[in-house]
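Figure 2 data, in text form.
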Amino acid sequence: MKRGKKSLPTADEQRVADTLVVNDRIVIPKSELLFSFARSSGPGGQNVNKLNTKAVLRWKPADSLGLPEAVLLRLTVQCRTRINEAGELMITSDRYREQGRNIADCLERLRALLLAAADPPKRRRPTRKPRRANEARLKTKRQRSEVKSQRRKPLGGE
């Protein structure tokens, strides 16, 4: 079987590889993302104590150029427990035994968080009570009042 030369990526492919595309409005440059690695817990055989497969993603949403202000506000409220004192959003992944798959998992988790924050919450529309329900409530109040008034002693001096 003959192997062909690997072609170089086009400019568009390179741009997509250098950015995290969340939706058509939100694009995060990967230069804003900082990855660090640590030893992962769990199964891994002999490699578990030798390889740094756990990926830790740090990102400062406040400094991001590709994040609209409204999305930033919703993200900081939704992820307040994940944001440290330095303003970094931290996402960790040690689901897989391979560093590359854990990096992809971190990026997918960040994408899911940004998609959730990009959705503006639906406004609550107050409902009106139906007229019939109000009439029924008043009718039962009148009946109850009548029952209680019949328990009272008559006003006359009998």
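Caption note: Confidence is low (pLDDT under 50) at residues 11-16.
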